[in-house]
Amino acid sequence: MPNWVEIIVRAVCIIIGLFFITKLLGKKQLSKLSFFEYIVGITVGDIAGTITMDIELNILNGVVSILIWTLFPLVISYISLKSKKFRDIVEGKATTFIKDGKILEENLKYEKYSTDELLEQLRKKDIFQVSDVEFAILETNGELSVLLKKEKQPTRWEDFFGEGAKLKTPLTVIMDGNYLENSIYDGGYTIDWIRSKLQEKKRSVKDVFLAQIDSNGNLYADYYDDKMKK
């Protein structure tokens, strides 16, 4: 087998394998990965690239190595779900940076976080005054969570009118010019009802890119021919 053909075969096999491994590990965003999961991802990618390009390496050994590296985060995740102490060791604990408008300098030093970095993260959340903050906590994934003092929080609906009406998730009933029959009937609607709504606007289902029904029973439709100019 020519070398270039073997590289193609290896690459396709590795890509398919990594796809299933990624599905197995779950849907965490990159910013949500723990430090260990981040290291595992880099290592697995490096191993995959190496055994794809170096045809002198035994592909079976490479696959076994990838499986071993993949197995570790799965085992650690399982144990973490069962043990709070183990989870604290692996993932760490959240650290409070600001409490009642006061910066906790020792906690900043412990996390090797400078004052400039703290202020920058606050500004990204549209907060420019440290004294406005009730709590600021560095989460285990490196994200800063901030709770403003009560008097500094934005006004909400319930502050004036109490609890509002419960909103339902919009029901998608048409996608790419086709009726989603299961969604329509599960939501208590019919295709005839939706078709009549479209006919009122002199439209057919083939004209619709996406259509949803809101919590008030109103049909919203986005059409193929209403594209905005760039």
Report a brief summary of the structure.
The protein is α+β, with helices and mostly antiparallel strands and 230 residues long.
The structure class reads: alpha+beta
Count of domains:
3
- The arrangement of helices and strands along the chain is HHHHEEHHEEHEEHHEE
What does the overall shape look like? flat
Largest sheet: 4 strands, antiparallel
The number of helical elements comes to 9
N-C termini distance:
49 Å
Radius of gyration: 26 Å
The portion of residues assigned to helices is: 40-55%
As laid out across the biggest beta sheet, the strand order is: 2-1-3-4
Q: Strand percentage, roughly?
A: 15-25%
Mean of residue pLDDT?
Answer: 84
Number of strands: 8
pLDDT below 50 for ≥5 consecutive residues: which ranges?
none
Descriptive notes:
The chain is an alpha+beta fold and 230 residues long. The chain folds into three domains: 3-88, no CATH class; 95-152, bsu07140 like domains (CRO Repressor, 2-Layer Sandwich), CATH 3.30.240; 171-226, bsu07140 like domains (CRO Repressor). 48% of the residues lie in helices and 16% in strands. It has nine helices and eight strands. A four-stranded antiparallel beta sheet has the order 2-1-3-4. Strands 6-5-7-8 form a four-stranded antiparallel beta sheet. Strand 1 (95-99) and strand 2 form a beta hairpin. Helix 2 (35-53) runs antiparallel to helix 3. The longest helix is centred in the first third of the chain and has 24 residues, at 59-82. The radius of gyration is 26 Å and the shape is flat. The model has no long low-confidence stretch (mean pLDDT 84).
